[in-house]
């Protein structure tokens, strides 16, 4: 049966992510790493995130982005509101932060600094074919995506089965333009 509430979607996806074998996870991470690098080639600045727990992605992916783009920014989460940012300068500069996250120790950049990014990779539990994204439920990215430049790809990074037909959408939800999945790489979403 199709789950209806966002909460139920979150519960199922988190459970499914936790059950993924380590070798599958490593293989998926490698594919995402290559696909993300392809999508960021030749850019001046990109935004991405430091994956924690069972989230898709890896520090290798961030390091690959650094080789493709002059600046890689990752979020710094404070009180719910638009995300602040800091430059990812390598894994040694990360420290444990609130909400169980890993964040850079360097200078904190204000929310509007995301506007200089040419591609924005964002964490998601799922995304649908219209670009509707399911996040962790604090609304950080909904408050952030209005600051991203017009026409800039907003790319939800998910496992293959997390690109789904339809998610519940609320008025405040901001849509993504693309998904990035291990098997399909960069997928353009219709925005309908
Ligand atoms: N890796 C990563 N970084 C990210 C995000 C993400 O989803 N993944 N975010 C995407 O938006 C922002 C942080 N978003 C968050 C959204 C909700 C909660 C949350 O509900 N926390 C629970 C406690 C969770 C715990 O400790 O396990 C809480 O506050 O009750 C935390 C962070 C910015 N950085
Ligand atoms: N632009 C906004 N202004 C004020 N509140 C907002 C805004 N966007 C979202 N919210 C609040 O954030 C709450 C969580 O939103 P939602 O469940 O869509 O989060 P999410 O996108 O899954 O989370 P995240 O982006 O943190 O991963 C909403 O109930 C809403 O109250």
Automatic annotation (TrEMBL):
GO terms for molecular function: 5-formyltetrahydrofolate cyclo-ligase activity; ATP binding; metal ion binding. One of its GO terms (biological process) is tetrahydrofolate interconversion. Signal peptide: none annotated. This is 5-formyltetrahydrofolate cyclo-ligase. NCBIfam families: MTHFS_bact (TIGR02727). Its EC number is 6.3.3.2. ATP binds at residues 6-10, 133-141. Its cofactor is Mg(2+). It catalyses: (6S)-5-formyl-5,6,7,8-tetrahydrofolate + ATP = (6R)-5,10-methenyltetrahydrofolate + ADP + phosphate. It comes from Rhodococcoides kyotonense.
């Amino acid at each position: 049966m199709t789950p209806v509430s966002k909460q139920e979607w979150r519960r199922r996806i988190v459970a499914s992510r936790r059950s993924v074998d380590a070798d599958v996870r490593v293989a998926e991470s490698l594919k995402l790493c290559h696909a993300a690098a392809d999508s960021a080639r030749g850019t001046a600045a990109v935004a991405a995130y430091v994956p924690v727990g069972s989230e898709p992605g890896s520090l290798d992916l961030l390091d690959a982005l650094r080789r493709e783009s002059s600046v890689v920014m990752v979020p710094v989460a404070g009180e719910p509101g638009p995300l602040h940012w800091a430059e990812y300068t390598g894994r040694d500069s990360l420290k444990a932060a609130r909400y169980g996250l890993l964040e850079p120790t360097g200078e904190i950049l204000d929310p509007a600094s995301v506007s200089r990014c040419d591609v924005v990779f964002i964490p998601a539990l799922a995304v649908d074919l219209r670009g509707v994204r399911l996040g962790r439920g604090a609304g950080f990215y909904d408050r952030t995506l209005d600051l991203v430049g017009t026409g800039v790809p907003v790319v939800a990074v998910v496992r293959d089965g997390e690109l789904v037909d339809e998610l519940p959408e609320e008025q405040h939800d901001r849509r993504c333009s693309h998904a990035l999945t291990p098997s399909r790489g960069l997928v353009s979403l219709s925005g309908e």
